[in-house]
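Feature request, filed as a ticket because there's no other form

It would be nice if the structure record came with a short human-readable summary line next to the tokens. Right now we just get the raw output. Example of a typical job, pasted below so the devs can see what we mean:
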Amino acid sequence: TGAADEECDATGADNTSADAGAAADPATLGDADFGSCSTPEIEFGVGFDGRKETSFQPKDKTSFNHGSAQAIGIITQFICDTLTNSCKANQAAKDLCTKAQAAAAAEAPKQGIDADAFNLVFGITTKFADVQAIDDQGRPVAAAARRSATFDALRARLNRRQPVRRAACATAAASSSAAATAAASATASAPAAASSST
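Raw output as currently delivered:
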């Protein structure tokens, strides 16, 4: 299926909500082509590689095979380098990754919002800011008081596109339903036509 199909479910609902791991927004990606790799995305949580502290790791280890790290900069640099060295991504994709690196670095370090900011540049809305940060002694770490202006601007831009996507999904669902009804009607009328001709 194409990117547009992946954004809508069978009911015509928009799938690019605030759920972790929501599909990337094609409008945000623009001309970016990630080559042989998937759209970059970073996870944040406890227990990666047996750690007791929270850390970051690439979501897709097939495209971006790197272990976890407490500092998101290690992961973002690896992902951006991999786009060039292994994925053969185009310049638009590399530029987007550089922008994502800067967005992550603008947030409070070692917090889930770092991953949210990185992912948001690629049109992926996640909620890792809700994950309690834990230090390497297993102690909770206080969350940052507020998000950066960069994060708020990215989120606002993505939110402005959601009503448009929802309308497009609803239209696609209506068209699909009409086509299915027409096909069912044609199938039902075929035996009757065959019977009348005998």
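Something like this underneath would help us a lot:
Confidence is low (pLDDT under 50) at residues 1-7, 9-21.
The helical segments are 3-7, 26-29, 72-87, 91-105, 112-121, 149-196.
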